[in-house]
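Weekly structure sync - notes
Attendees: PM, LS, DV (DV joined late)
Agenda: review two folding runs queued last week.

Item 1: First target. Sequence and structure tokens pasted below for the record.
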Amino acid sequence: MGVSDWTGGLIDWRGELAGLKVRMGAVLGRRELRETAAAFMDGLLSDTERKTGWMLSEEAGHGAPHRVQALLGRSRWDADGLRDVVRNYVFEALGDADGVLVVDETGFVKKGEHSVGVARQYTGTAGRIENAQVGVFACYASRHGAALIDRRLYLPENWAKDEKRRAKAAVPAGIAFSSKTAIAREMITAALDAAAVAGACCRFVLADALYGSDSALRHMLEERGQSYVLAIRSNHTLRFLIEEGLIQTDPAELAEDLAAEDWHALPAGEGSNGLRLYDWAAIRIPWTTNEGFARWLLFRRSRKDAGKFAFSFVFAPEETSLAEMAGAAGLRWTIEEAFQRAKDDLGLDHCEARSWHGWHRHMTLVMFAAAFLAKLTAQWRSAAAKPNERSPTERNPTECLAA
């Protein structure tokens, strides 16, 4: 092995990009659309600072942004069909026996009120209520990398009921108001079904407290026998039936009752300064569940501030260790990194399209560009690994079934 092997110098990125464009073209159909989409992809991957219609058109050598605007707007192609292609591409590139599915939302601060779904609403991107769009996204992550695989714009209730605004933004008639948790349930179901067909593994489903507090989501996953680590709030009501009767408590109260020996220092993945260490503890919850599975309440405590906790529900096989739970919980940050890369480098938040289909087309094309980069990174990691380690694309998909 030479330097070029482990530094990625021999990776055929041009051939990989050409193959991506072929997959993309199968959804787009018309030659002009394929050419515009290919130029759009090149622009997303370029060092152009703003990935707007004008800037991408200039990068492509077009005199005006009409072709880019048509690609995102009036042309006819199925953004969900391309989303399916992106999802399978990611499963092929990053699929692993210990892969996880992460769901979260991100915000896009906007001026004005005409872009679809824009409203005064809380967005974690700004950390406050802002005039913004909010999208719910799903990410697949494994030891080989992470990439976004699904997206859907959250349509606030006042938008969903406003026929005039819906018509201007071309919101499909079948799109009604749906909560973020309901959107997440649909996304997770679709992703798990697609993973099963593709032979990709999803060891855990991960999400923050907004989604972890949704009992319908937890029940849906349990019915599928799908392990999860879902965050909950400190005041989440817990009820247990014990010999003395029914007791009611919450995670914060239970954390105070844990003894010093209940806590164990474990890493929760790697951060910018190395392994992120926390103290962890878990209590098995005495609720009836699937045979061979168990539920736990997982506690995370800061090692710098003993009064700072985080809490999660865990559903997993009975033999699951505390280290496994902690490691899975720590992977929730992978979607935040995916958001940051897609926004900073690829213009996920540079969408100028005001329509429903324009928003979803822009997001899907950016997701494909991000998936391409994730696959190149996975290939580079594979080249730098030991010679007897196989890349994710060489792995037999059925191996995950026996893991």
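Item 2: Second target, run right after the first with the same settings.
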Amino acid sequence: MTQDEDVELARSGDMDAFNRLHHKYWDKLVKTLCRRTQDIDEAEDMAQEAFIRAYYAMDSYRGDSHFLTWLTSIGINNSNNHQRKLRRRVPQHDVEIDSVSIFDEDSPESYCEMEQTKDSINLAYYSMIPEFRDCLEMRLIDELSYDDIADNLGIPVGTVRSRISRGKRELKKQMQGE
């Protein structure tokens, strides 16, 4: 069966067709969400939630874009909501000694510098406007075309180009400490 046939059957309530879609797109969705969360368990939870939401919203899928694009946008919205919740929490910086690995050739100072740099990059990335971050991630990490990003987010291609450009500038500015 083709994807279009499975989508149409799933829209009419065929659970087997939806299961085929689930099987076909699970890994791709988890991979996309894992790059956003950096946590495979969290990504799998969000992917499962996206599939559940997609199942109950199948009648709202218009077919204007590929099913995976529509499903990914549901997953990204879940991820954005999750990130907003995380930003509201007070960050915890406690580190268990067992989770730290320092090699003999690394000094404690170099390890601390590396961790600070990693923290700076994460802070700059997650403090960026979500619209810029989403477009940058889809382009640079997912390697999607501007047209696919526009379809995925439901915005014009010119807006995608603008957001990517502005996102790069903002990230560079934050990393330079301006």
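Discussion on item 2: The helical segments are 3-11, 15-37, 40-56, 67-88, 108-127, 130-141, 146-153, 157-175.
Action: LS to circulate a short write-up before next sync.
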